[in-house]
């Protein structure tokens, strides 16, 4: 179901959610894509860009922690 909200309309035969689901990105990456795609279509473009940045930073920390955990487990075995 396509939304009629202007910040969701991309003028295409697909929605951003279709891409997100197709790539199975996970919560943080999904939100990065969502906020980047709608940046400039709502009241405050910078707000959406900052939200995307926040989710990128969260994903970086998640990946770092995961890598550290794997490395620690490897070293302890």
Tags for this entry?
mainly alpha; 0% strand
Account of the 3D structure:
It is a single chain. With 77 residues, the chain is mostly helical. The chain is built from 3 helices and no strands. The longest helix is centred in the C-terminal third of the chain and has 32 residues, at 45-76.
- Count up the helices: 3
Total number of beta strands: 0
Q: How would you state the average pLDDT, rounded? A: 88
Instruction: Characterize the quaternary organization of these chains.
Output: single chain
Terminal CA distance: 50 Å
> Main β-sheet, in a few words?
none
Compute the CA-based radius of gyration.
16 Å
Listing every helix as H and every strand as E from the N terminus to the C terminus, the arrangement reads HHH
Estimate the global geometry from the Cα principal axes.
Answer: elongated
Which band does the percent of strand residues land in?
under 5%
Structural class: mainly alpha
Q: In percent, how helical is the residue content? A: 55-70%
Weakly predicted, low-confidence segments: none
């Amino acid at each position: 179901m396509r939304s009629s909200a202007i910040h969701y309309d991309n003028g295409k035969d697909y929605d951003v959610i279709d891409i997100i689901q197709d790539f199975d990105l996970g919560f943080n990456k999904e939100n990065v894509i969502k906020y980047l795609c709608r940046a400039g279509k709502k009241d405050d473009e910078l707000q959406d860009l900052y939200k995307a940045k926040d989710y990128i930073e969260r994903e970086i920390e998640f990946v770092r922690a995961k890598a550290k955990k794997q490395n620690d487990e490897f070293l302890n075995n």
